[in-house]
Amino acid sequence: MASTGKTSDKTPLLEISGLKTIFPTDDGIVHAVNDVSFSIARGQTVGVVGESGCGKSITGLSMLQLVPSPGRIEAGEILFYRSTDDEPLDIAQVSPKSELMRQIRGNEIAIIFQEPMTSLNPVYTVGDQIAEAIVLHQQVDKKTARERAIEMIARVGIPAPAQRVDEYPHQLSGGMRQRIMIAMALCCSPTLLIADEPTTALDVTIQAQVLGLMQELQAEMGMAIMLITHDLGVIADLADEVVVMYSGRVVERGSVDDIFYNPLHPYTQGLLRSIPVLGRTPQKTLPSIPGTVPHPLALPAGCSFGPRCPERMPECNQMPELLSINSKTENDGHPVRCWLHTDSEG
Amino acid sequence: MTKLLEVNDLRKYFPIQKGIFQRTIGYVKAVDGISFDVQRGETLGLVGESGCGKTTAGRCLLRLIPPTSGSFIFGEEQVDLAKLSQQELRPFRKRIQMIFQDPHASLNPRMTVGDIVGEPMRVNKTETGSALQDKIVELLESVGLRSQDTRRYPHAFSGGQRQRIGIARALALQPELIVADEPVSALDVSVQAQILNLLAELREKFQLSYIFIAHDLSVVEHISDRVAVMYLGKIVEISDAETLYQSPKHPYTEALISAVPLPDPSEQRKREHIRLEGDVPDPSQPPAGCYFHPRCRYATDICKQETPELRQVAEGVQVACHHSDTLDLQGV
Q1: Using CB atoms, which residue from B215, B257, B265 is nearest to A278?
Q2: Phi and psi torsions of B264, nearest 5°
Q3: Do residues B47 and B253 lie in contact, with contact meaning Cβ atoms separated by under 8 Å?
Q4: Which residues are registered as beta bridge partners of B17?
Q5: Residues of chain A contacting B261 with CB distance shorter than 8 Å
Q6: Residue among A268, A265, A273, A271 nearest A341 (CA)
């Protein structure tokens, strides 16, 4: 059950602050992730929402030091609390190829991708692929790993796991492949699962199954989930906290109820208004956001959303800070990056 | 309203061939006897999950692939398009156009936007010379692009703008019916609304009829007057949009509606979720009786043996379920 103020009574698992991930290209530097800060508490689900190119996937990859070359993390901290009493580890400082990073990847932080067909290896059986992670991270022999793989396949709700374990990815349907991905991600009981558009390639009825499965497994195993998606329905279904991104920056952050019932940023408001909602008396015209997402190499001066914003004012030529309306700090419950909400004292 | 298109018992079977002699060992019944009609000025939504045959049905209607059987009675002339030869079909091709899903794959990257939009008119010799150029500009402006865009190439445009180019091309021959196959599913949320609005606006302006094929139920609800739900090559329910979403009559429709997560957290917490078990069955080996029975929570013995026919249960509401009279199903 999602409720407001959940963050405060939970211990933090991961704190990202001022994260910048850049891609140097021949035409200039793309700031894919630009000064992104948010935190994830243990057992919590944080939804990261935004359109294509907003940097939500690169944020997820940065957390695992998996940013594809030539991209790199340029600044910021990714503090990961590996256990409740230890000092946190700054993942941004860990080398991508180090032994330490390998221990974390797949073992403590796992990721599932959008397209289950391309993320599974077609020439290995699914059992081998799940067992690989188990052998790598837990000191067990192949036989035990295989047994655990069968156990995991059963746990993600695939019938006849003892047969399925020896099948190849092409023998499974899209929904089952995504279940296998989930099994693979969860076989080492990670404390954080990054789910990057986990259901976008699936049909709605299969999506409902997979989302339900993720919720069940979260309740059972207690991992935190960072859910990256463009689908506001999926966010409303699963997330406790929501981070809204636009052009590499966080524009608004808050509890799921804050974001859906009291959106502050004109982009969040526009996004929520522009989606057709099932069963709401269909309007003749959807209130759409004019224009398109700016090109990352040709960002407008000041607020990136400025040119599309219905509330545009002179201040928008400068980039606003991500500030909370009441406390004027970033760490309060519902910060927003907009000049409309920074003017109480002038 | 007058009837523009009447589809009767459309079937498309793809043979499964095996061995060196390519012997046919079975059929995938992609579209298995569907019937519906489209009124002039109406939008009919065709919704279903992947593999249900909605795209195949759309392609058959345009004769992009030959249907196995069935008839499509089109226009005032009441011509059966399924029976015409390619030659006889040509004048009708102008009157039915298509908008494709992927705006990146459906535009030729080597042609300028002006050439892309002008091509149908050049091929059909409806406009020439400066009249053609004027018409291209007019079309681009009607979809929200600018006249100077004619000389640019598709790669210079964003996904939403490319979809506008595809729409301008579809409008070039002043069609009466447009088959739109997932026209917004490749677009970003904020752009999707723009294209939906554009399609609605163009429908009014040019008195178009649409067959709108999509998997997204909320998008279909928004744009459609009537909706047909397909499952494994068959229509399981067809009725006007509001009735279908408020009081579905087929258990599959109910499950589909329930599976859509609403962008409203407290509503979403309150809703009862119906989770369908399993996957869509293999269309080359559909289950006996009602195709939906293995996943249906209301299934009884009759569902395993007899295939329910699509029958009228109320004015404008047709459903293919043995139990539709007794079931009280949940809408949105």
Answers
A1: B257
A2: -155, 100
A3: no
A4: B24
A5: 207-208, 211, 231, 233-234, 236-237
A6: A265
Q: Which of B221, B263, B279 sits opposite A232 (nearest CB)?
A: B263
Measured between CA atoms, how close is B164 to chain A, in angstroms?
Answer: 13
The minimal CB distance from A208 to the residues B158, B262, B273 is found for B273
Beta-carbon-side half-sphere exposure of residue A238 (alpha carbons within 13 Å): 35
DSSP letter (8 states) at residue A105: B
Pick from A2, A205, A260: CB nearest B255: A205
The beta strands (E) that lie in chain A are given as 12-25, 28-41, 45-49, 72-80, 89-90, 109-112, 192-196, 224-229, 241-246, 249-255, 323-324, 335-336
**Is B99's Cβ below 8 Å from some Cβ in A?**
no
CB contact under 8 A, A208 and B246: no
CB A212 within 8 A of CB A234: no
Chain A contact for B297 (CB, 8 A cutoff): no
For residue A240, which of A219, A269, A220, A266 has the smallest C-alpha distance?
A: A219
> Which of B145, B157, B187, B189 best probes binding to A when mutated, by most A CB atoms within 10 angstroms?
B189
Chain centroid to Cα B296, Å, comes to 25
B148 CB within 8 Å of a chain A CB: no
Give residue-wise pLDDT tens across range A184-226: 999 888 999 999 999 888 888 888 988 999 999 999 999 999 9
C-beta separation of B45 from B224 below 8 A? yes
Pairwise CB contact (< 8 Å): B275 & A271: no
Subunit contact A232:B189, Cβ cutoff 8 A: yes
Terminal-to-terminal C-alpha distance of chain A: 39
pLDDT in tens, chain B (332 residues): 789 999 999 999 999 888 888 888 888 899 999 999 999 999 999 999 888 899 999 999 999 999 999 999 998 889 999 999 999 998 899 999 999 888 888 999 999 999 999 999 999 989 888 999 999 999 999 998 988 899 999 998 888 899 999 999 999 999 999 999 999 988 888 888 999 999 999 999 999 999 999 999 999 999 999 999 999 999 999 999 999 999 999 999 999 999 999 999 998 888 888 888 877 888 888 899 999 999 999 999 999 999 999 999 988 899 999 998 898 898 88
Return the bridge partners of A227, or none.
Answer: A47, A195
Return the number of other C-beta atoms located less than 10 Å from residue B193's C-beta: 26
User: What is the largest distance, in Å, between two alpha-carbon atoms of chain B?
Assistant: 68
Task: Specify the amino acid at residue B300.
Answer: T
On the 0-12 / 13-18 / 19+ scale of CB atoms within 10 A, B118 is buried
Residue B217 at interface with chain A, using a CB cutoff of 8 Å: yes
B221 interface with A at CB cutoff 8 Å: yes
Distance between CA atoms of residues B38 and B7, nearest Å: 8
Q: Do A231 and B257 touch (CB under 8 A)?
A: no
The alpha carbon of residue B77 is apart from the nearest alpha carbon of chain A, in Å, by 32
DSSP string across B66-120: --SEEEEEETTTTEEGGGS-HHHHHHHHTTEEEE-S-TTTSS-TTS-HHHHHHHH
Task: Report d(CA A339, CA A318) in Å as an integer.
Answer: 9
- Where do runs of H (alpha helix) occur along B157-213? 159-171, 189-206
ipTM of predicted assembly, 2 dp: 0.85
DSSP A37: E
Whether the Cβ atoms of residue A73 and residue A62 lie closer than 8 Å to each other: yes
Give chain A's count of helices (H) and strands (E). Answer: 11, 12
Please tell me which of the candidates B219, B268, B331 has its beta carbon nearest to residue A237. B268
Between strands A45-49 and A241-246, the pairing is: parallel
